[in-house]
Amino acid sequence: MEQSRPMALLGGHLATGLADVTSDPAALDSEGFWAVAADFEGGLVCARFLDVRPIVDSGVPGAPWRGPRADSWSTSLDRLAYTDAVTRIREHIAAGEVYQANLCRVLSAPVGEGADVQALGGLLARHNPAPHAGVIRLPGHGVEVASASPELFLRRKGQDVTSSPIKGTGRTESDLLDKDHAENVMIVDLVRNDLNRVCDPGSVTVPDLCAVEKHPGLVHLVSTVRGRLRDGLGWPELLAATFPPGSVTGAPKRSALRIIAALETSARGPYCGGLGWVDADRDCGELAVGIRTFWIDRAEGLLKFGTGAGITWGSDPEREWWETELKAHRLLAIASTEVSGACREA
């Protein structure tokens, strides 16, 4: 069946002809074109493909998407549980344990065996184009992901590294608050610290801070952090220093991870992980933060999608809940069999 064949749509290229699969990030510094899927909990799948060609014109035709009903979505944290968790994070902030933490919930809906992430990726590309969109289909290795990510996690060209964290979301620019700007600056500082662990001293800079970017139905605050990877270091060291992405964890990262692990009730999986490609022959690659991302869990027969918000002392619990709804609304409608932004609370 078509949906069982390994493939990837990444960086404007279609990759087929699976050759190797490994969890060793050192392979990314070897040879060939690799599709990379890293889940938030630390699992890494790197797949080398032999046939890689540019996508032209209308893209890659595929079977129609067979999505779930619009009213069949459930959530790992309902409104009350989510707003209570926001309050708990504010208590941790008041106690000086953390400055910011990203609180997420996972939405899920039943999906049939014929559902194909390549078809879903095509729908996303048409109705919600994103600069770092991608699809990876490796059914034999538990990876079936379609993403409309707007966020660059890591771009590497030789030893030059760039990260562009997003913090601050609204329907329009007027929705963005002082809290959003403060949150963005906090995460930029975290990303700077992460990159300083593996970059040449003095090479880490912030050429853009809190720029406004427009995306379908949303605006974001986006900053850019750059550095030069120290000689002798490669993908293993870079990923170890920066993963999971700071924009979807919090600051300080270790404290934020401990707090959200105690509050979230579902594994994030590919959501908030990393998704992208590495061309080892050309010594370059690009990984997106796995937001605006769907994945198929075949064991549970579910299509899943994550949504979240960054929590600071200035957060209002109800506003943060509605930010997660805003982020999910358009994409759930695209993935469902009829236009609807509603999701049923579990």
Overview of the structural elements:
There is one protein chain. This protein has an 18-stranded antiparallel β-sheet that branches. Residues 338-346 have low confidence and may be disordered. It is α+β, with helices and mostly antiparallel strands. It is globular, with a radius of gyration of 19 Å. Helices cover 24% and strands 35% of the residues.
Q: Write out the CATH superfamily name.
A: Anthranilate synthase
- CATH topology: the name is Anthranilate synthase
Report the order of strands and helices. EEEEEHEHEEEEEHEEHEHEEEEH
Distance between the termini: 33 Å
Q: How many discrete domains?
A: 1
Shape: globular
CATH architecture: 4-Layer Sandwich
Please tally the helical runs, counting DSSP H or I stretches of 4 or more residues: 6
Q: Which CATH class is shown?
A: Alpha Beta
Concise description?
This protein is of the alpha+beta class. It has helices at residues 79-94, 117-127, 178-196, 235-242, 253-263, 317-335, and strands spanning 7-10, 13-22, 33-38, 44-54, 74-75, 100-110, 134-138, 143-147, 152-157, 160-164, 166-170, 205-215, 218-228, 250-251, 274-279, 284-289, 293-297, 302-311.
